[in-house]
TrEMBL record:
GO BP annotations listed: methylation
InterPro entries listed in its UniProt record: SAM-dependent_MTases_sf, TehB-like_dom
Family annotation (Gene3D superfamilies): Vaccinia Virus protein VP39
Positions of the Tellurite resistance methyltransferase TehB-like domain: 26-178
Species name: Alicyclobacillus tolerans
Alphabetically ordered keywords of this record: Methyltransferase, Transferase
Protein name (record): Tellurite methyltransferase
GO MF assignments: methyltransferase activity
Top-rank taxon: Bacteria
Length: 201
């Protein structure tokens, strides 16, 4: 879905992606014992950021959509949770503070391919030793049709691209999954590479 579309869908009262956290977020919360500082890149309406905050993390959410961030902030306030939000384009946002977890679900597809190397190096450099990068990315498969709501500002990865940036980290888990999706109201499939990696030194 094109980035400019999110303001429209997030301005509606219902939660476009629902309020149940992503399975990757749930796995990360269970895995990571030290509940430190986490940044959610592309937090949208806040479902994963809220889950991190509920479980003791100091959570920061970044998203381009102001309506999405406002919805996330109101949700956090309603639950009595402290979160911080930043409005920014993923292609222009570099980490300047250190984090224990750098997390993103579905958003890294918007990073222009020529910027990927520098962006991932930035994420790695601003992860504390012992910390984690927890990501999933959409991968291109010739036997899966491109989703009907795929935007012109979205860019597929190839299988293994994500993993190649983390050859020097401990790979806690990595898998490629194919799943059904109904975004935009049209049933379709996606393929994703899903990774949890830990910085050891």
């Amino acid at each position: 879905m094109a980035m400019e579309t999110y303001d429209e869908v997030y301005s509606k009262p219902e939660f476009y992606w629902g309020q149940e956290p992503n399975n990757l977020c749930k796995r990360a919360v269970k895995l990571i014992e030290a509940k430190g500082k986490v940044i959610d890149l592309g937090c949208g309406e806040g479902k994963d950021m809220i889950h991190f905050a509920r479980n003791g993390f100091d959570a920061v959410g970044v998203d381009l959509s102001k309506p999405g961030l406002q919805k996330a902030e109101k949700w956090a306030e309603k639950e009595g949770l402290q979160v911080a939000t930043v409005q920014a384009n993923i292609n222009e946002f570099n980490l300047t503070a250190m984090f224990d977890v750098v997390y993103s679900s579905g958003t890294l597809t918007y990073i222009v391919p020529t910027l990927r190397h520098d962006m991932f190096m930035n994420y790695k450099e601003h992860t504390n030793v012992g910390g984690f990068n927890v990501f999933n990315v959409f991968v291109e498969k010739p036997f899966i049709e491109t989703a009907p709501d795929w935007g012109t500002d979205e860019y597929f990865y190839r299988s293994g691209d994500l993993l190649s940036f983390y050859w020097d980290w401990e790979i806690i888990s990595f898998e490629e999954v194919i799943f059904d999706c109904n975004s935009s109201g049209v049933p379709h499939k996606h393929a994703m590479d899903v990774m949890i990696a830990r910085k050891t030194k």
